[in-house]
Write a structure and sequence with these properties.
49% strand; 129 residues; seven-stranded mixed beta sheet; mainly beta
Length: 129
């Protein structure tokens, strides 16, 4: 599966931004989708994940209540809506996909620790103070 993220850029603190991730190559609804980020000098970290049908989501504590992940299986696209952005949200954001393990529209918190199988190229998000 190929993943292409877009929508990054420069925004002021308190502002909003929406990232998109278009998938191609395989049946999109067979995959859990997620977003990760990597700030300069830091390791890549989990941001959020969504089950194949959108029924379950998981968020890092640092973004809970500010970021929202969603997906449109008809458009093979996942989204990350980011509100109330902070300078510490500055990072390269990566879209990722992992084959769903069961038919159930449910995910556990495993993607926080083990990552995903497929990765797109990142998109830079810079939040100025």
């Amino acid at each position: 599966v190929q993943l292409q993220a877009s929508g990054g850029g420069l925004v002021r603190a308190g502002g909003s931004m929406r990232l998109s991730c278009v998938s191609s190559g395989r049946t999109f609804s067979n995959y859990v989708m997620g977003w990760y980020r990597q700030a300069p000098g830091k390791m890549r970290e989990f941001v959020t994940a969504i089950s194949w049908g959108g029924g379950t989501t998981d968020y890092a504590d640092s973004v809970k209540g500010r970021f929202t992940i969603s997906r449109d299986n008809a458009k093979n696209t996942a989204y990350l809506q980011m509100n109330s952005l902070k300078p510490e949200d500055t990072a390269v954001y990566y879209c990722a996909a992992d084959p769903r393990e069961t038919p159930d529209d449910h995910i556990t918190d495993r993607y926080r620790y083990y990552g995903m199988e497929y990765w797109g190229k990142g998109t830079q998000v810079t939040v100025s103070s």
